[in-house]
Amino acid sequence: MNATTRRATKPAALLGDDWRTRAGCTRNEAELFFPIGGSKTARSQTKKAKQICAGCPVRTECLEWALENRQDEGVLGGLTEDERRALHRRRRRFAFQRKACQHILTNRLEEFLELRARGLELLEIATELGTNVQTVNNVIEQLDARQEVDAA
Ligand code: SF4
After folding, report:
1. Which positions ≥6 away from 57 have C-beta within 8 Å?
2. Do residues 75 and 92 share a domain?
3. pLDDT tens profile 82-91
């Protein structure tokens, strides 16, 4: 689909399932949802599109659809393409950290506890385990949560 076709298409009409019938946007507003460039007019269109999205009853569905289908243009689900890309990166980072945390808890807990017992800084522990400080923090939080559950 080229930009001309895309601009002529109602955003919700791109969206495939039943929930699109409850979309807050209409065909007449297509220009708002696919602003071109970074001009004042484009920024104003983006702002108006976001306002419509803010009151849309299917915003969550729309955003998830846009993320899953890598829609890389236009305002969808209340976010611009740049904002959706940033959200996608955050989610991937979070998923990676959660997986790394689970790996340590499952496979390297003894080693982790030994490093903690030696009084190493978080960065040193992360380096020893070949991970990052955030993951080390996540492991500590998980262990604290387990202790709280055990103590209750
Ligand atoms: S969230 Fe925005 S783009 Fe998506 S259906 Fe609703 S109004 Fe349209």
Report:
1. 22, 24
2. no
3. 999 999 999 9
- In the chain, the number of structural domains is 2
Residues near ligand 1 (Cβ within 6 A):
11-12, 23-25, 33, 52-53, 56, 58-59, 62, 76-78
pTM summary value: 0.73
For the CA of 15, the nearest atom of ligand 1: 5
Q: What is the pLDDT of residues 21-72, one digit of tens each?
A: 889 898 778 889 999 888 999 999 999 999 999 999 999 999 999 999 999 8
22, 58, 61, best to mutate for ligand 1 pocket (most atoms within 8 Å of CB):
58
Please name the residues in contact with 55: beta carbons below 8 A apart, sequence gap of 6 or more.
24
Residue with tokens 């055990």: 150
DSSP annotation of 56? -
Q: Record the tokens describing residue 124, joined without a space.
A: 């040193």
Same-domain pairing of 71 and 9: yes
Angle at which helix 59-68 crosses helix 81-107, to 10 degrees, equals 80
